[in-house]
Design a protein that fits this description.
333 residues; alpha+beta; five-stranded antiparallel beta sheet; elongated
Length: 333
């Protein structure tokens, strides 16, 4: 069905781009095979020709309006023109749908090359490579190699989780999903029904922000804690999707990036460099340990657990208790 719709949209776009005059609904209906099929009355309407014709007209009209909206959402500029007889026609002028020439200097090409090198895994690697090829064809300077401009820099965004690609597609298509998720403090995974909003990478880990249907609230899930396969569940979201900024703030908060307090920890010398980078105060305790004051926000307990025996929480007491609980859960398996 997805292929059939894509073919229908392509045929409609070609008709609108290829015409020199506005085409009416009737003309488009007779020119595109999918519309001809949609306009045919079903077998059950053979004994009711009037009702069958009306039903086929409604089916075509709904399909055409959806396709027209989809093309406009994809960026095609479709004009609606009324002729002297009052009949409405449609066309997409080539001048209105032609991109201006693309010119890039050496610095801009180098920036694009670095961005493309970030994605070396999953489906986005091919998309990044294809985008650079199109830019080359559209005017990327021939004497500039975007991959070699800054060869010493090797940016990477690792994508090791099998859940990344299906969740990326679910976010794009606004499709609810279900997966088994194991919280850091739980011994066994639980099924979660989620309306996915966006994927974010924090401290080398991927997180999914979305609406948890079971809990009736927004939640953030770390992809490395998703077990098994991500399955699609129906279509349509039941909760409004926040804008990009709001989603990123949510991910940042659940990942421990937003802090409103301070915590005091002991850290083994020569360990925990990400924690040291966050520290607002460091004091040498001797015997191979330092005392650090670091920002404390939601998710800090999960981050501290990752450093294992190299970290000891001194205060506040609730953070120490949360870390101890997580460590006990890990020990129990």
């Amino acid at each position: 069905m997805a292929i059939a719709k894509a073919e229908r949209l392509m045929n409609l776009a070609l008709c609108l781009l290829g015409t020199r005059r506005p085409l009416s609904k009737r003309e488009l209906r007779d020119s595109i095979e999918a519309y001809v099929e949609a306009s045919r009355p079903d077998k059950g309407a053979a004994s009711r020709p009037d009702k069958g014709a009306a039903a086929s007209d409604d089916s075509f009209n709904r399909m055409f309006e959806r396709d027209k909206d989809d093309l406009r959402e994809l960026g095609l500029v479709i004009e609606t023109v009324e002729n002297i007889d009052g009949e409405v026609g449609y066309l997409a002028r080539r001048g209105s749908n032609r991109l201006p020439p693309i010119t890039l200097d050496a610095e801009e090409a180098a920036a694009l090359g670095l961005a493309a090198k970030v994605w070396q895994q999953a489906r986005l690697a091919g998309a990044a490579s294809g985008a650079l090829q199109k830019l080359r064809a559209a005017g990327l300077p021939e004497d500039v190699d975007p991959y070699e401009a800054h060869g010493a820099l090797e940016p990477r965004i690792p994508v090791h989780e099998a859940a990344f690609e299906p969740l990326m597609l679910a976010c794009r298509d606004r499709r609810p999903v279900v997966f088994d998720y194991r919280k850091a403090s739980a011994a066994h995974p639980e099924p979660r029904h989620v309306e996915p909003w966006a994927l974010e990478c924090w401290r080398g880990h991927w997180y999914l922000a979305g609406f948890d249907r079971d809990r009736g609230a927004e939640r953030v899930f770390r992809l490395s804690r998703i077990t098994g396969r991500v399955r699609s569940r129906g279509t349509g979201f039941t909760a409004p999707v926040p804008d990009v900024v709001t989603v990123r703030e949510t991910v940042a908060g659940w990942a421990g990036e937003i802090a409103d307090r301070s915590a005091l920890i002991r850290l083994r010398c020569g360990a925990g460099f990400p924690l040291r980078a966050k520290a607002t105060r460091v004091r040498d305790l001797g015997d191979g340990w330092d005392e650090l004051e670091i920002p404390y926000g939601h998710g800090l307990d999960a981050w501290l657990v990752e450093f294992g025996p190299d970290v000891v929480v001194l205060e506040p007491a609730e953070l120490r208790a949360d870390v101890v609980d997580r460590l006990r859960a890990v020990a129990k398996g």
